[in-house]
Design goal:
The protein folds into two domains: 2-272, Carbon-nitrogen hydrolase (Nitrilase/N-carbamoyl-D-aminoacid amidohydrolase); 296-348, no CATH class. The strands form three sheets. It has a six-stranded mixed β-sheet, with helices on one face. It has six helices and 17 strands. Helix 1 packs parallel to helix 3 and helix 4 (161-169) packs parallel to helix 5. The longest helix is centred in the N-terminal third of the chain and has 17 residues, at 16-32. By secondary structure, it is of the alpha+beta class. Strand 16 (333-336) and strand 17 (345-348) form a beta hairpin.
């Protein structure tokens, strides 16, 4: 069994010293429970405190972003080494031009074996102040039970099937998922589906009430017995109360299940999935908040969109109100950016 400790904690807002102290205490409790790895909820160093709208508040918030080699991360690296237990630590990471929402998986020897930054940032919210990650990663983790392939996705990532699918294709056997939002039935069963469709173990930890509603959970991804009888994939589901909860994954059973069952990679038809990597967004899904909000095929040929202003985030606002940090177009579209704001425009041929 591989034991994952779900650290369902309330957090202390932007008080990093208090969050560090509570985190250390929770990790020690996890080690006492025999955990192989302890998992924190999303952006633990500031307990997922939103970026303020005002510039002075934003400056303070950005100033709390951590260097991955700094004392906060280093403290947990030393703790992992002391306890002989891996730790999946989450934090606001210092990055240019904007911070990232990050997770570092630290092995039981205190080495960082995987660094991941949230790919699907919630750009319809304050998370537009973050830099999205650029990919999903998997790394082997040396546990007392042997080497296990771990991947990570963060909160909103789990709402896109591509996240878990890419991790499965890269070899993930268990996916760790820090979270910081309400887990209703739809999100709960959606998460179960990620386990089912990829034959992968998944573990999610959320903040305790009253900050969030808890409901941290884990599924083993094994939907059927050897004789075809359906089985419950749920390992653990908890309530709102703070605590350190454990989820035991039978990794050998998961490997055996993957060898005999039909999901995963063997029967996929990638040649038929041509649209999946497309960056074009079409109605009715066009959103002014999206980082790829301008879409060539909904702009009449020959129409010009003129730049109105620059956004603090580094993107632009066009005169029709559309915002974008980068532009994705079909063939035939051209982009011309001049030195002065009034000279910048988009022309669709």
């Amino acid at each position: 069994m591989v034991r994952i400790a779900l650290l369902q904690l309330p957090g202390n807002g932007r008080d990093q010293e208090a969050n560090l102290a509570d985190g250390v205490e929770a990790c020690r409790a996890a080690a006492q429970l025999g955990a192989d790895i302890a998992l924190f909820p999303e952006m633990w160093n500031i307990a997922y405190t939103p970026c303020p709208e005002d510039e002075p508040g934003r400056t303070v918030w950005v100033g709390q972003a951590l260097n991955t080699e700094g004392p906060f991360v280093s403290h947990f690296r030393s703790l992992a080494r002391e306890l002989g237990m891996a730790i999946a630590l989450t934090y606001l990471e210092r990055w240019e031009p904007r911070p990232r929402n990050a997770c570092s998986i630290i092995d039981r020897n205190g080495e960082v074996v995987l660094r991941y930054s949230k790919v699907h940032t919630c750009d319809f919210s304050w998370e537009k102040a973050l830099t999205p990650g650029d990919g999903f990663h998997v790394a082997p983790l040396d546990t007392a039970k042997g080497e296990v392939q771990f991947g990570a996705m963060i909160c909103y990532d789990r709402e896109f099937p591509e996240s878990a699918r890419v991790l499965m294709l890269k070899g993930a056997e268990i996916i760790l998922t820090p979270n910081a939002c309400e887990i209703d039935d739809n999100r709960f069963y959606q998460f179960r589906t990620r386990a089912f469709e990829n034959m992968v173990g998944v573990a999610m930890v959320n903040y305790a009430g009253p900050k969030r509603n808890g409901r941290s959970c884990a599924f083993d991804g094994m939907a059927y017995e050897e004789d075809g009888t359906p089985r419950d994939m749920l390992i653990v589901e908890v309530g709102e109360a703070p605590g350190v909860y454990v989820a035991d994954f039978d990794i050998e059973a998961i490997r055996s299940y993957r060898e005999r069952e039909t999901w995963g990679n063997a029967y996929r038809r990638p040649a038929a999935y041509g649209l999946l990597p497309s960056t074009v967004v079409r109605e009715p899904f066009v959103s002014r908040h999206s980082r790829a909000a301008i879409v060539a095929d909904v702009i009449p040929p020959g129409e010009r969109l003129t730049l109105e202003s620059a956004m603090p985030s580094g993107g632009v606002v066009f005169s029709d109100g559309v915002e974008a940090d980068y532009l994705a177009f079909t063939s035939g579209a051209t982009v011309s950016i001049g030195a002065a704001p009034e000279a910048a425009h988009l022309v669709v041929a």
